[in-house]
Design goal:
Radius of gyration: 44 Å
CATH class of the largest domain: Mainly Beta
CATH topology of the largest domain: Immunoglobulin-like
Strand order of the largest sheet: 17-24-23-19-20
Number of helices: 3
Helix content: 10-25%
Largest sheet: 5 strands, mixed
Length: 350
Amino acid sequence: MNRYIFKRITKVSIFLVSLLSFMLFIHVQNSFAENKYLIEPKEISDKESTLSFSFSGSDDNFAGIIAEVNGETYTEHYYSIKDGQVNTIEFYETFKAGTKINLYVVYYDESLKDNKTELAKTIIVQDKTAPKLSVPSFDARKNTIKISTESGAKVTATYNGKSVNVKKISNTARSITIKKPLVGKKLIVIAKDAAGNTKKITKTTSKPFVYLFTDDIQESDKYATGSVYDYKSTDKLYLVVGSKKYKGTIKKGKYKIKTPKLKTPRTVKIKLFDKYGNLLVTESARAYKYGEIKIGMTKKQILNSFYGKPDDISTDYYSNEYWEYWRYDFGSKTTFLNFRNGKLNNVSTY
């Protein structure tokens, strides 16, 4: 190697060493606060207004910590920060998920003869808020349930313990189809956002409002009759006598059921079912023999009549005769049936 080349290599080496030394000096200066003052913030969510952090390295040059959020600063002075313990910065408000919180260490710099502010940490506000989800109440008449959620959320649902299809209508709207809605069974809907937050809503299938009014059944009647409101053509109506059911028909809100021979007095049931087998409504109907009463009837005959059981009974005994008074309350009117020695003697209405 000649002398010229050796000199060139020596000069380049000296230059590189000087450059590396300068860069190392700059790095040491820039990382002074990070190495000397250690700040470790904990996670903060969009539901929290307080940031917790641990701090170590406090000395006479340490002046405090500044948090900067969206251009606004929150300052914690050195005298309120405890070395080696958990400290807090109170923002008095929450921030949206994804918001950056920059934490700066403030300390006295000997070279500047002044305080220096240096970025120590940047943390991101975490999304911990459950996604929006709205599920309406519904009854057994509903096969399609429309729900709303937040854009981008994944929605799943189960009905009566089995998965059901959730159809996307728009970014925020979904529809759920229930093939066979059953009263008392639960629909469970869960929405999950991109951050993994979930919201769960449970709705129970209710009975629809159906109104059934029954007429009394006289022993000589061939049909049980009455009225039905808010029914559907697919509903099924039955007269239930003991363990037996007799199917009826509904036309223009009026029902008719052919009655079997009934042993009176008794009470029978009229029941309305939908096409899925849900019992929608049950009403009772009195069955009796006599539509009218006459003087001289026995108490047993009265019980098997339109009057049936009285609302109140009182008795008296005088002149060797036993008197019994049955009271019936019919709305605003009151009727008394007077029995003399077990037979109807008088009827009076007030």
